[in-house]
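Hi team,

As requested, here is the filled-out complex form for the pyridoxal-5'-phosphate run. I kept the field names the same as last time so the parser does not choke. Let me know if anything looks off before we queue the next batch.

— J.
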Amino acid sequence: MSLKKKYSIPFNKPSLTGQELKYIKESVESGKISGDGLFTEKCHELLQNRFKIKKALLTTSCTHALEMSALLLNIKQGDEIIVPSFTFVSTANAYYIFGARPVFVDIRPDTLNIDEKKIEQKITKRTKAILPVHYAGIGCEMDRILDIARKYDLKVVEDAAQGVNARYSGKYLGSIGHLGAYSFHETKNFICGEGGALIINDDEFMERAEIIREKGTNRSQVFRGEADKYTWLDRGSSYLPSDIVAAFLFAQLQKMDDITKKRNHIYQRYVERLSPLENEGLIKLPYIPPCCETNFHLFYLLLPNKKIRDDLIVFLADRDILALFHYLPLHLSPIGLQLGYAVGDCPVTEDVCDRLLRLPFYNTLTEEEQNYVIDSISKCLKG
Ligand SMILES: *Cc1c(COP(=O)(O)O)cnc(C)c1O
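And here is what came back:
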């Protein structure tokens, strides 16, 4: 099985909403295609209004938004962050590159999100932040996590890469912690190739976030006429995307409801047609707590064991369908082992990683294609 091969039913297919190229043309014709142009501003306003957030700053990726958060928290050698092992590398790496040690916490077996009951026992004098990851666009137990953060005076940075336009207790993911990070990577719900946003919910970080994003200078203030010359003030880097990228993204964000509706339809169809297999005990479907509204980012199954999961991947690949497992536990990666972690440190994560399978999921997946995927799964599991 190779990722390079073309499958007739691929895992992901980026789709356009119609206005992308028109907006890119407008951006080019505006005469300013570097960062913080016309369309960047439009994206900021749309995100801020729609998600009721104080400040959104487009970035070149979610990884970079997370790096910005580490700079904002002044992360240095010897600091610790609380993070699930069941996540994408960037959640931990964005802090690791500044010298922090990721302290891995296991996940809940139902939502596959960080187990809030296991956080407190991992907090030490060196802990600086908790990084909940909203897996599959389903919210972590944020009320409990914020309580813990208040008790120990920690910052909460939401990795909402997969959670754009999803909610927890009525609040949009990314708007709940001190800071949040979104991804607009091609594989996410709303896309621009490579891109992200840093969400700033705490006034304390407003000014420095702009400076860090503009190479450590106050260039943003100069643009707005709030200062007359710009200079080097802080650590920083170049985290702002070209306005051409923002133009593409704006077309996607404007169609957020349409995209979500399409994904909801696909999601419900998987649930309906796979439920019989769940009732027979052959698979387990995702769980969405009542306080959460998902954005239908991805659809996964949990198989009874690794052998059945791996056989199913091959069975589907033979039928020209690409289904994928997800993370390898970070605590068991070469870096995790180097940090001293070992098998058994996060047992739920280790178990889930062996048994999870993500099904093809994209806005243009047809009913016929989806039926073929579902029938193929049935055939494989029921023999
Ligand atoms: C996709 C993803 C990222 C990285 O996003 P980029 O925009 O590609 O940097 C980080 N964390 C999680 C949980 C993700 O799913």
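Two things worth flagging: DSSP finds 13 helices and twelve strands in the chain. The two ends are 22 Å apart (CA to CA).

Thanks,
J.
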